[in-house]
Write a structure and sequence with these properties.
CATH class of the largest domain in chain A: Mainly Alpha
Shape of chain B: extended
Helix content of chain A: over 70%
CATH class of the largest domain in chain B: Mainly Alpha
Radius of gyration of chain A: 32 Å
Strand content of chain B: 5-15%
Helix content of chain B: 55-70%
Oligomer: heterodimer
CATH topology of the largest domain in chain B: MetI-like fold
Number of domains of chain B: 3
Strand content of chain A: under 5%
Largest sheet of chain A: 2 strands, antiparallel
């Protein structure tokens, strides 16, 4: 039986349980006209029964699914001949893979000897038995839970309070998922990064000047030095982020000023949504535009001016990233400018200053913390941006400040190291997690700082 | 005001007004830059991509020769040489061509998909065996690019992908009306392919659909539940502050970090299948959860306290107040948040690269655990392909993606406008 069918059956059972619980509560006070004698509305007795029917069964189901394959494999290994049990973890994994493939009727590596086919048959039998047991156990738990709850129904049972308690627990669980996600991110990145730092010293990673993550398979291989000095990546990220900010901050800020101070209401009403479109375009689309339109254009223009421009120049990627961030900067700057009390603005205008003087000497200084906070958020966004740089920036780790050369960034290297098949415990793969840890830490600091500044400042004038 | 002050002020006035004008012009310029970029972007995109919706087809009189496809009486669907049917028909138009080299060049005019099309026709209608029928077959991508003006026929033959002989044949076909641009249906019905003229976005669309389905089913209820708890029940203490800070930060964590989480937790630890829409959906729901929670909280906040107080005053429990009154009233706002979150999830590609959804997958996924790609990832894959024809398809796929995003945002705007309640 498929998992989907089982879940469907469970759902139906719990609906039935709902009506049975409701009917029993009504019957206990013989007919709807005596409803007042029940502690709760009849529906709550129904919910009470349904929850006890469904929740424990779902719990069993999810536990079963998470443990099933491990238990089956442990059983399988125990049945293997002693010679196979003594294999190393990698070889054993290969063997188990072969057994599973044979059982599923897929192609296997090597010949299907009697040991393999026996194991495959055993594997199939175990899986089959597990599935059958799962159905029986889950339905039994559902039935048992439903019947027990049903028998507990009594006019004095505080069904509403019990149901509401369970719902509250579910609500708390839902809101803790946000925390769990953060913990999950930190743990998963941190653990793999620590494993990486066992192989490569953290000082070399942070301050090394040489990045070439191709690790040698054989000792005599050429060009596979396996150097993990990430400084060129940090420098490349910084270069592209700086270019992006040089585009986004002046343009975004001046747009916000113009829309807040000079433009008519109708212009504002058309331009703002248009800029939001810019914010809604997926980054992969920006990447395509950067790689196929902007980069060739930058190269041609550079050559016409007699400059040496790489075809994957930092300038093209940075420029497009800057355009992407314009709406973010302008909307955050807009918020900050609008939060300045109009008394300050009116006072400056009343004293005879021009509008630009009001803006530059009164409003902007007052709004500065908010704008800085917004810029911090924008920087964090630029550092973490992936698709544009993957498609338009280079792969070579150059340590340069020349925007016409190709540089690589932290996110590009994470993608390059992790896309494709490789063993999970090589230094190359683990390096991606160490880079991820750096990325997460830096963006987290920027975000916390930026959000705090923005919020604190907003409250100041309210 | 004394005379000297007045003099000082009026002396500076011209300079100050000039500064004012410059400042104003800079502002206008900055505003225009954003808009100009948007216009350039869309013009470039449509200019590159709109041609992909039409495709070159060749009209041939194909004889479904039983001797070729059914040498021993029944049609061998797996191994019969259906391409030969198309090749023979094409050779029939140019009987003067002979020799291995020229014949191969002639055959190169047709797409490798021609044989599949003929096979499908025969499967659908077995009576065709032995008959001759006029069929429009897809041309190869080189012919297609030439038709669309992307290959310059005037440059030296060694520099282009089409030979002089082929140019002559194409010309002859065109003069007899056997070469035409038709609506490119394959683009919407095929999965990915190495041949640009056969590559379509169906597989990616279906993959994206499954992923969004998982995301919606997980993120919407969890997000709404979390928002309800935080707004209506959470005591003001450290724990709820922590959750709050967390959610705001998660909304700003780079999406690629969520991909690392998915790789480490869902694939390595929970051993879920790689490249599966299920895992993609899980990662995307974690990604959209903060968006939905923040929007739902705003919607709940907008419900005036008088409604809660009235319900409480009539004896409803707090849970009843929330589920009978607050939630129905804030549902439009929550749904708007959900749609915006989903549109963000639809455009997301970086975390999907981490969990192996970048594989080359031809088949349209049929379930949540089948290998699949998503539309943005397909765009990324095609953008990397060197063939000129793929650039056109990439732009077209981007147009489809942007179309869906605009549709979703439009629905969100309409929903907000229609259901908006002024208290």
């Amino acid at each position: 039986m498929q998992g989907n069918t089982l879940i469907l059956i469970l759902a139906t059972t719990s609906v039935v349980a709902f009506f049975m619980g409701r009917a029993r509560s009504l019957k206990l006070v013989s007919g709807p006209q005596l409803r007042g004698k029940l502690h709760s509305l009849p529906g709550y007795y129904g919910y009470f029964t349904a929850i006890w029917c469904l929740l424990p069964a779902l719990l069993v189901l999810s536990l079963w699914f998470s443990l099933e394959s491990r238990v089956i494999i442990a059983l399988l290994v125990k049945q293997l001949p002693a010679a196979q049990q003594a294999l190393s973890a990698g070889e054993l994994n290969l063997l188990l893979n072969n057994i599973q493939n044979l059982a599923n009727g897929d192609a296997i590596s090597g010949v299907a000897d009697s040991m393999l086919s026996e194991s495959a048959a055993r594997y199939l039998a175990y899986t089959d038995a597990s599935r059958r047991m799962l159905v029986i156990v889950t339905l039994a738990v559902a039935g048992l839970g439903g019947v027990l709850a049903w028998r507990r129904i009594h006019p004095a049972l505080r069904a509403r309070n019990k149901v509401e308690q369970i719902v509250l627990v579910l609500l708390v669980a839902a809101s803790s998922i946000a925390i769990l996600t953060t913990i999950g991110i930190v743990l998963s990145v941190l653990f793999e990064a620590l494993r990486f730092f066992q192989k490569v010293p953290i000082s070399e990673f942070l301050f090394g000047l040489n990045w070439s993550p191709q690790t040698a398979i054989r000792a005599d291989q050429v060009g596979s030095s396996g150097n993990f000095g990430a400084l060129p990546l940090f420098a490349g990220t910084l270069l592209i982020t700086t270019i992006a900010m040089l585009v986004a901050v002046p343009v975004g800020l001046m747009t916000a000023i113009y829309l807040a101070e000079y433009s008519s209401r109708s212009v504002r009403a058309t331009v703002k949504p248009l800029l939001e479109i810019l914010a809604g375009i997926p980054t992969v689309v920006y990447g395509f535009f950067a790689a196929l339109t902007v980069a060739p254009w930058v190269r041609r223009t550079g050559e016409a001016l007699g400059l040496e421009v790489a075809s994957e120049s930092a300038l093209a990627a940075g420029f497009v990233m800057g355009v992407m961030i314009i709406p973010l900067v302008s909307s955050l700057a807009d918020d900050a400018i609008n939060a300045v009390p109009s008394a300050m603005r009116d006072g400056a205008l009343g004293l005879g200053s021009t509008r630009s003087e009001t803006m530059r000497k009164v409003i902007l200084p007052a709004a500065l913390p908010g704008i800085v906070g917004g810029i911090l958020l924008a920087v964090s966004r630029a550092i973490g941006e992936t698709m544009i740089v993957v498609m338009a920036a280079g792969l070579a780790a150059n340590l340069t400040a020349n925007p016409f050369e190709a540089v690589t960034t932290v996110t590009v290297q994470i993608v390059t190291l992790l896309v494709g098949d490789q063993e999970f415990d090589s230094a190359k793969t683990l390096a991606a997690f160490a880079l991820g840890l750096m990325l997460f830490t830096v963006t987290l600091c920027l975000n916390v700082l930026g959000l705090r500044v923005v919020r604190k400042y907003r409250e100041q004038y309210e | 005001m004394s005379e000297s002050t007045r003099k000082k002020v009026s002396a500076g006035l011209a300079r100050r007004r000039r500064k004012e004008r410059v400042f104003r012009m800079t502002g206008l310029l900055a505003t225009t830059v954003g808009i100009v970029f948007l216009v350039v972007f869309f013009v470039d995109l449509i200019g590159k991509g709109s041609s992909a919706f039409r495709q070159t087809f060749v009209n041939l009189e194909v004889n479904f020769d039983a001797a070729i496809v059914a040498p021993d009486g029944s049609v061998d669907l797996q191994y019969a040489d259906f391409d030969a049917l198309a090749r023979n028909a094409l050779r029939g138009l140019f009987p003067e061509v002979s020799g291995r080299g020229p014949l191969r060049e002639l055959n190169q005019l047709l797409s490798v998909g021609a044989g599949y099309q003929l096979r499908d026709m025969l499967v659908e209608n077995p009576d065709l065996l032995g008959m001759t029928q006029s069929v429009w077959l897809p041309a190869s991508s080189n012919v297609d690019m030439l038709q669309k003006g992307n290959i310059d026929a005037s440059i030296d033959a060694s520099l282009r992908t089409i030979s002089d002989a082929q140019l002559a044949w194409i010309d002859a076909l065109q003069r007899t009306g056997r070469l035409e641009l038709h609506w490119n249906r394959a683009f919407f019905t095929n999965g990915d392919s190495r041949e640009p003229e056969l590559a379509g976005i169906r597989g990616a669309l279906v993959g994206s659909f499954y992923m969004l389905l998982v995301t919606l089913v997980l993120a919407l209820p969890i997000g709404v539940a979390a928002a309800i708890y935080l707004e209506e029940f959470a005591p003001r203490n450290r724990w709820s502050d922590l959750i709050e800070v967390n959610i705001n930060n998660l909304a700003a964590v780079p999406s690629i970090v969520f991909g690392l989480l998915g790789l480490a937790v869902f694939i390595n630890w929970a051993a879920l299948p790689r490249s599966a829409p299920l895992v993609g959906g899980l990662v995307l729901s974690l990604l959209t959860l903060p968006v939905i929670i923040i929007a739902s909280r705003a919607a709940i906040k907008a419900v005036p306290p008088s409604i809660r107080n009235a319900a409480l005053g009539l004896g409803a429990s707090r849970m009843q107040v929330v589920f009978h009154h607050v939630m129905p009233l804030s549902l439009p706002g929550m749904l708007t948040g959900a749609i915006i979150g989903m549109s963000r999830a639809l455009g997301e590609s970086a975390p999907l690269l981490m969990i192996g959804m970048v594989a080359f997958i031809v088949d349209v996924p049929a379930g949540l655990s089948d290998p699949a790609t998503a539309l943005p990832v397909q765009i990324y894959l095609w953008a990397d392909s060197p063939e000129r024809a793929f650039a056109e398809r990439t732009s077209a796929a981007i147009m489809v993606l942007l179309g869906f995003l605009m549709l979703m945002n439009l629905v969100a705007v309409v929903l907000r406008k229609r259901m908006e309640q002024k208290w």
